[in-house]
Design a protein that fits this description.
7 helices, 71% helix, mainly alpha, 195 residues
Length: 195
């Protein structure tokens, strides 16, 4: 099971890149542009149209693997309040990623009304940001108190320092957010795999 946790971020990256290449013209038709408007219906728009089920499945699988990673981390860290809350929030961020499997509404659409699944998708996105960043900040403090995790504490806070502004300001910086978070999760999985 520990090795399976290594594949969550890798799966997400591979699917994201592959579908972006395969659906490039479709994404452009949604209003997306890789440099001028990289977050316009991306990556959520990859769940629309042809091959959309692959992105939907990826949201679910990657989210469940993040939740499992958080539960493994919770078992590995000392049962202090801060580590338990941080791990729980990380698990909730995984479930929020699962919530992104509710199909988004395209920003440019014929009907003005949003759908229930589009609202659920948007809510899941907000919850993902709130739980993920909160968990990382708390886990940074928890890592600082654990001898074998001290260096990971600084790495966690540096990741948050780069990822939060990129998450908020969007644009091409959003790629920095994705890269920083996925690299942090992969590093966390590797560290737990060695434990």
């Amino acid at each position: 099971m520990k090795r399976a946790l290594l594949f969550g971020p890798i799966l997400f990256v591979v699917v994201l890149i592959t579908l972006t290449v395969l659906k490039y013209d479709f994404l452009l038709s949604l209003g997306w542009h890789p440099l001028n408007d990289p977050t316009f219906d991306w990556p959520s728009g990859l769940a629309l149209g042809k091959y959309g089920f692959i992105m939907t499945a990826t949201f679910i699988i990657s989210g469940l693997l993040i939740t499992a990673l958080a539960l493994r981390l919770k078992a590995d860290l000392e049962p202090a309040t801060i580590s338990q809350i941080g791990s729980t929030l990380l698990a909730l961020s995984g479930l929020a990623l699962v919530g992104l499997s509710s199909t988004t509404d395209p920003t440019i659409r014929m009907l003005p009304a949003t759908t229930w699944h589009g609202r659920l998708h948007d809510l899941s996105y907000v919850l993902l940001g709130l739980t993920l960043f909160s968990s990382m900040i708390l886990l940074g403090f928890a890592f600082q108190k654990a001898k074998s995790w001290k260096l990971f504490s600084l790495y966690t806070w540096v990741t948050v320092a780069f990822a939060v502004p990129a998450f908020i300001f969007k644009g091409p910086a959003f790629y920095i957010f994705l890269f920083a978070i996925l690299l942090w999760m992969e590093s966390l999985a590797w560290k737990l795999n060695k434990a």
